[in-house]
Amino acid sequence: MPRFVAFEPDRDNHARLSENLALNGVADRVELHQAAVGAAQGNAHLVPSGAANRGMSHLATDETPGGYSVPVVSLGSIGSARCVTTFAAATSARPAA
Q: What's the whole-model pTM score?
């Protein structure tokens, strides 16, 4: 069965994505990481967005108030045998029809 590797550094969006994967019966096909993706491994400062638009979370170059540290992984760190395609997905809590 195909497997997907997903990265979502925002803790609230990660929780929503995890819940939606389970609601839609596909959690067993997705390897979900609560991390950002970058050129090198390390840490970054994530500034979460407000509840009105959860898609506006972003990484900051400084320690902006209200943000928190998140791990950053490089694509090479997840294994060279995997093919990774990046995409963005909405994470509203609705099961598939």
A: 0.75
